[in-house]
Each structure stands twice: as C-alpha cells, then as structure tokens.
Amino acid sequence: MSFTVKETIKEVKSALTLTADVWTSRATEAYLGVSCHFISEDWEMKTLNLATMPLEERHSGVNIMTWLEEVIAKYDILPTKIKAVVHDNGSNIVAAMRMLEEKHGWASVRCSGHTLQLIVNNALKEPSISRAVGAARHLPDQWVLLEELTQGLQPFQCATVYLSGQEYATASCLPQLVKGLQRSTQQTRFETGAGKAFLASAEKGINERWGCLNTISAEKENPIVLSASLDPRFRKLKFMGAEDGTRVQGTIEVLAIKEVRGSEIQGCERVQQQRVSVPGRGDKSALDNLLQSDTDSLSEEEDESHEDQKLQMARSEVQMYFAEPAIHKKDDPLRWWRENKGRFPVLSKLARSFLCIPATSTPSERIFSVAGNICSQKRASLSGDHVEMLTFLHFNPE
C-alpha cells in the first residue's frame, strides 16, 4: 500500500504541501500525523495520509524536524518538492518549522483554524463577558448578551468551517476572509458592555495575529498572498493596498521567469543526455570542429533568442492574467485553471503549486479523529505500529 502512495507522489509534477500535527492517544502514547496535499493533472485537490508515527522521544523542535524529514524520505520525496508545511501554533512545531525553513526553504504556514480559536477564546475570557455569561444562567434579562455573542461568533464559525475544507482551495481565501472578519467586528453594533468588549477584543486579536498576513518581502515568499493572487477570484488583490498589489504582481512575474528558466535548463539537460547516449560518435577531425564551431555559434544565438521570446511571453502572460476581471466568488478556481491552462501555461504551473496549500492543519487532525476511534477503550492496547497501519489503510484505501 505504501508503494502505491509512493508511486502516486512520484507522478506528481507540481509541488507538494504537508500538514503536520502531534496527538496523544487514550493510552497516553504520542503520534505525529502527516498528510500530503497536491493538485492532480485534472485540477482536483488530492490528500494522502503519509504517517501516524508513534513518538517515543521528547517532542523537541529538533526531533520534530528529524521526524518530518524521515517521513518524506520514506516516500522518496525530495525536500525541494515541498512548498509549505501547515501546522498549529505550538512552540515545538514552530521551532521545527523555523529550522526546516532555513534548511530546505519550506514555507511555514500557521493553522488559521487554530488562530481563529485563540482569537475567540481570548475574547470570551474578557472579565466582563465571563461575569455576564455566568449571571445569564440565572437572570432572564442577560439573554440579550447571549444573543449578541451568538451574532458576534457567527462570522468566526463560518470562516472556521470554510477554511477547514479539504477538497477545494482554502489558503487563497484567507486574506479576504480576514478582511471580512475585521469589517464584521468594526461594523457590528451591540448594546451591552460585555458584547462591546467581545468585539473590541476580537478585533484586537485579529490585528495582532494576522497583522502581518499580507506582508510582502523580497527576501521571503508569502505563500498565502501568492496563493490568493493565483486564485482568479482574488487576483485583483482588493484586500491590500495598490502599492503592495503591484509588488505581488512583480513577485509572480519573477516566479514565472524562474519557472521558464527552470524548464529550459531541464530541457537542455535532457538533450545533452540524449547526445551523450548516441553511439558511434568518434573523435571529430579539425575540419569538423571548424564547421561545427560556426554551427554552434548560430545555434547558441537561436537558443538565446528562443529563451528571450519565452521570457517575454511569460511577462505578457502575467500582465494579461492580472488585467482580466476576477471571477465570481462562488466559482471554482481549480475548474477555471483547468479550462484556462492553455492560455496561461506558465502561471498554471505556479497555481498548481500554491493553490494546494490548505489554510488549516485539519487534515492531520482528521487523522487523529480516526486514530482515536481505532484506539478506543477496547483497543487501547494496540501498538503504535498497528495504529499507524490501520490509520494509513483507512485514509489510503486504493
């Protein structure tokens, strides 16, 4: 079964994203759950369970880094093929990702579901809310507060459910959803002091935890913003200022040029390998070398001209993509790319790599939900290896 998963991953030409999380079973045994995400040739979101690894050592940042490297090595995944890792805000896994980002260039993406949970929990811990909610159990007039809190929590619940999806693009929606949450907390009007305190605390939490969400840097890619820019629903980048939007378009152009040059290098390497493998080529005479020299010079000029044309086409492709109107928010961006990949051959490769990034680490948490059922009270004595095998079979049935 693991061989089938390995072969499936081997056939994926685009980048992969991982989600990772640590869980403790009923028998107090710890596991590292790792899922792999990519977009198929038919532009469908795919998820594979790679590991529910039993952990016998301390969950330090160094150990988590080593375990993640062991998981990808098991499936013959090159580190350069990983675009990002989505994880929660736990200090150990954050430390591991800091090291992996420096070592392999993997983008570290914090789980937006966990961030939303922290924002809401902190807002509900406001003293005035705690006191009022306690009193509401006994005083009928405090039901007004409960109605306000229900209204105030609804946008957060809606965002959490949507971002936890697994079969559609989610990370690309995050900047616009955060903008919507900010707008909701600013425009909602409550009567009670506790309700107002909730809104103020929630708005503060959003600004503190996602204040740098749209930051653009020349030194470091922002996978969330780049994912949003390659989602045709959000390509106008209305969630950020015009100047930052121009910088994002410039970054996409740079990535498109890198993609073209990378393809050219791979093509040249294949041609050279074919030439080396052709039998019967002996040493050239002096005349052959003279004649070949002229031909090579001409060939090199033609190659350079051909590369320049491809680079210019890539630039034009980027300009045309961002000039077109955004599609409707309810439309499927993956379907749009499937239908338009012929018009945007370079950008479609970038889109396949960035749109597969999940907004949350929920896929790994789903692994633990199944693992929890496997490790039920009646089967709590199952070994870690058996738990991993049964979980793997559940998520990778084919």
Q: Secondary-structure blueprint of this entry?
A:
Elements: H1 2-11, E1 16-24, E2 30-39, E3 45-55, H2 61-74, E4 82-87, H3 91-104, E5 107-110, H4 112-124, H5 127-136, H6 143-163, H7 174-187, H8 193-210, H9 223-229, H10 242-277, H11 286-323, H12 333-340, H13 345-354, H14 362-374, H15 384-395
Parallel strand pairs: 1-4, 4-5
Antiparallel strand pairs: 1-2, 2-3
Question: In a nutshell, what does this entry contain?
Answer:
The chain is of the alpha/beta class and 398 residues long. Helices cover 60% and strands 10% of the residues. Strands 3-2-1-4-5 form a five-stranded mixed sheet, with helices on both faces.
Tell me what the structure shows:
Strand 1 and strand 2 form a beta hairpin. The chain has 398 residues and is an alpha/beta fold. The protein has three domains: 145 residues, 2-Layer Sandwich (Nucleotidyltransferase, domain 5), CATH 3.30.420.40; 99 residues, no CATH class; 94 residues, no CATH class. It contains 15 helices and five strands. The chain has a five-stranded mixed β-sheet, with helices on both faces. InterPro entries: HATC_C_dom, RNaseH-like_sf, Vacuolar_transposase_reg. GO terms for molecular function: protein dimerization activity.
Uncertain spans = 267-271, 371-384
Shape: globular
Q: Provide the succession of SSEs.
A: HEEEHEHEHHHHHHHHHHHH
Span between N and C termini? 8 Å
Please bin the fraction of helical residues.
55-70%
From the alpha-carbon coordinates, what is the Rg to the nearest angstrom?
26 Å
Strand content: 5-15%
CATH superfamily name of the largest domain? Answer: ATPase, nucleotide binding domain
- The number of domains is 3
Q: In the CATH scheme, what's the topology name of the largest domain?
A: Nucleotidyltransferase, domain 5
What's the CATH class label of the largest domain?
Alpha Beta
Helix-strand category? alpha/beta
Count of helical stretches: 15
Protein name: Zinc finger BED domain containing protein 1
Pfam families: Dimer_Tnp_hAT
Organism: Dissostichus eleginoides (Patagonian toothfish)
GO cellular component, one term: nucleus
